[in-house]
Amino acid sequence: MSQKFDDTPGKIIAARRCDDNAVVYLAPGGAWEENPAFARIVTKPADQQRLLRIARADAENRLVSHPHLADEASISGT
């Protein structure tokens, strides 16, 4: 996971898995996990955009749909 800098909120990539419509999160290594605790957290905008490109490629391959950035706090309850 990325180190957090200052008070920049962490971001994760969320999507819907195509085969069962479950909410999933992009994890380190490019896997999609249902458990948000395994989500890769990034703070730098360049890293966020890079992960979003990976997620969009997975959407084009019909692994997931509607990939988007979300605040880490929105899934962790903090």
- Classify the helix fraction into a percent range: 25-40%
Give a short account of the largest sheet: 4 strands, antiparallel
Amino- and carboxy-terminal Cα gap: 18 Å
- Helix-strand pattern: EEEHEH
Quick one: how many beta strands? Answer: 4
Radius of gyration, in angstroms, nearest whole number = 12 Å
Kindly name the structural category.
alpha+beta
Strand order of the largest sheet: 3-2-1-4
Question: What is the overall number of helices?
Answer: 2
Low-confidence stretches: 1-6
The global form is globular
Overall pLDDT: 89
Strand content: 25-35%
Itemize the secondary structure elements and their pairings.
Blueprint: E1 11-17, E2 23-26, E3 32-33, H1 45-60, E4 64-71, H2 72-76
